[in-house]
Amino acid sequence: ADFFSTRGYDVELQEIEPGRFQTIATLRGTGGGASLMLNGHTDINALTRRWRRDPWTPSLEGDRLYGHGVQNMKGGLASIVMAAEAVRRSGVRLAGDLVVACVAGETQGGEGTHYLMERGFRTDAAVVAEPFGADHLVTVHSGIVHLAIHTYGITGHIGRLEGTVNAVHTMTAVVEALQRVTFRFTPRPDLPAFPRLNIGSILGGRGADYVLVEPPYVPDICTIIVDVHFLPGQTVDGIVADIRATLDPLAGGDPTLRYEIEIPPPAGFKGRRRLVMDPFDMPTDAPIVQAVARSYRAVTGQAPKAIGTVLPHSYSADDTCHLWKAGIPCLLYGPATIRGNADEDDACVLVSEMEKVTRVLAVTALDVCQRKPAELKLPS
Q: What digits encode the pLDDT tens for the residues 106-135?
C-alpha cells in the first residue's frame, strides 16, 4: 500500500476479514475511457519438503529467479505492478482507470477477488497474471470444489474392543470406493482428463479435536479432504449426488459405516478452500483477449503461441471465475514457472518472462484505457 500511495495511486487497503488485508491501487484516468484491472494474488502455496535452496531468500541464477512463492504468483504480481509503473512513468495520461488488485486468498477459492466483487467493484476488463506463460493467452479453466467426507465410529479402549467402531477402518472402505465414482458430464475435447477426483489429505482421531496421542483408544472420527476438478455444465449438487451414488450402497451394506459430506471443509482445517471456483470459458474473440494479443504482437513481432485452452494450465482454476461471474471480460496472462507445476521443489520463474509480461501488459493498458467502455463489451 505504501509503495503505491507514495507514487500517486489512489489506494484502498481492504480488511477482508479480521487481520487479513489486500491492496487495491488505482491509477486514475482523466475520464471517459475504459477501465482495466490487473489482478494478482499475494498468497502462496504450502512449502514443499525438498528445496535445495533457502526458499525464503530470493536467488537469481542466470535468467531464473528462485524463492518460495515467486512462481505462484509473486512473479506475476511483480509484472502487473511494474506494468502499471511503466505507464505512470511514461507520463501518458490514460482516459480510463488502471487498477492493480493485489488480492488475498486465491488458493482458498479466490476470497479476495470474491470480496471485491461482492462489494460492487467493477472494471470494464481484467487480466489475471497467473503463471501460465508469457506466450499463452488462456481463456478456459476447469472448476474446483473442495469437500470433507467424515466417517464416524464408537470409541473404546484396546482392552475392550467389543461394541467399538474404528472410524479409520471404515474410512478405508470409503477411500477405496471413491476410486469408482462415475461422474455425469458432457465431455470437453479440450479438457480430456476431467472431471477428476483427488483425495488430498486424511486425519483420524478421537473427538472433535481429532486427538492423535491416544493410540490405545479406537478413533471415532476420520476425515478426508477431497478435491474435484469439474467441467462446464457440471454443478456442485450434481457432483455430490454422484459421490453419494457410490457411497450410499456401501453404507447400506455395512451398518458400522456412517459418513457425512461437508462443503466447505470445517473451519478448523488451516487453509481450507471455502469458495467454489466455477469453470471459466471466455470467447477468444472477446475485445480484451484481442487487445492483449495485439499488444503481444507489438512487443514481440509475433503472434501468441496459443489463445484459448492451454494444457496443463487450463486444468486449474483461479480468480477469473469470480470476475467473469460479475460480468467482467477477462483472461489469464502471466509469467510461467519453469517446471510447469507451481508446487514443485525449487520451482522458479524466468526473469525474461516477467519482463515480457510487463511490457505486454503496459502496452495493453495504453490501448484499452484509451478506448471507450463500449468497445470492451463482448460480441453479441
A: 999 999 999 999 999 999 999 999 999 999
